[in-house]
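[agent] plan:
  1. take the single chain provided in the ticket
  2. run structure prediction with default settings
  3. attach structure tokens to the ticket
  4. add a short note for the reviewer (M.T.)
[agent] executing step 1
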Amino acid sequence: MALKKTPLYNKIVAADPVMVPYAGYEMAVRFGNIKDEHNAVRNAAGLFDVSHMSEFRFKGEGALKAVNMLISNDLSKIADGDVQYNLMCNDKGGVVDDLLAYKISDNEILLVMNAACHDGDLAHILANFKSDNIQFTDETLQTGEIALQGPKAFEIFNSATDDEFKDLEYMKFTTGTIAGAKCLVSRTGYTGEDGYEIYFNNSDAEAIFDIIMTAGKPLGLQLIGLGARDTLRLEAKMPLYGNELDVDITPFEAKLGWAVDLDKDDFIGKSALLAQKETGIDKKLFGLKMIDKAIGRHGYDVVSIDNPQNIIGHVTSGAPGITLSYNIALAYLPAKGYKIGSEVGIDIRGKIKKAVIIKTPFYKRPSK
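[agent] step 2 finished; step 3 output follows
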């Protein structure tokens, strides 16, 4: 099957990146050096083409109630114009996907979900969403998205948009115009930095891209690929579906219980999660700092430091902590018997390398 192209494909390839297949799309993994791109986002700003993400819209009387059955958090507790982090679970409490829910009104909800999960998400929604009064639309192929992230994102974005969005707060969204095109803009992101995510029709993608790049270049704005996107989100301990999350992992095991509202009337997976809340969890997600000079990668076994033959868990993500000057990883380990300061081993091609459990997130942006 041919790879899909985002509406910004021509702009992206003109910058001569390394392109790779990702979630059915041809995407840029890096434009130069991943470390340089990572540091650009931490110190100035980066622009990401994330037009591969999935957008699902629910519109009609009772949309909020219907969507609330699909997701773990409670949309009735937020205001119109708020963005809420959520999980979509199966009957066993396993995570089908994580997502952002945009509450336009009680009668209109937009869900933004992971590109790699699109087909599974769509099937799950269609199998479980039942309402003749609500229009459900998959807008993925008609919608472009860019993310502007970094400490200079506010200055760049508001310069490009004549301060139209200057009062937008974190986890809020609004609609407006950029380069004469209608957009939805949220103060959200996947890097641990301040920034914006901007949604628009495909036909407006290049004009919006150009105006933001023009405003940002004098302030150090760079294009950023999938490689640095991964190192940035890992430092901020933001989960990646297929690594930290999947259908066999529950929100409580992933330390995402704060995104589960067990007090709301009902949602898919509630019964299983209530039971797990009572009985407790056997495993949970920990952050690791490498002691030895090595990197624990996805899928590597984690072993007892006292008995390397005893496999106690596995690494979900690992990379150099570019901002931190040490290597980091996330791993699922037994919920009991391990805590901050506990040492473990990681089996890296037959050699056991030491790591220590530390507090997460690994990185928090400096407060202003």
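[agent] step 4 note for reviewer: The mean pLDDT is 97.
[agent] ticket updated
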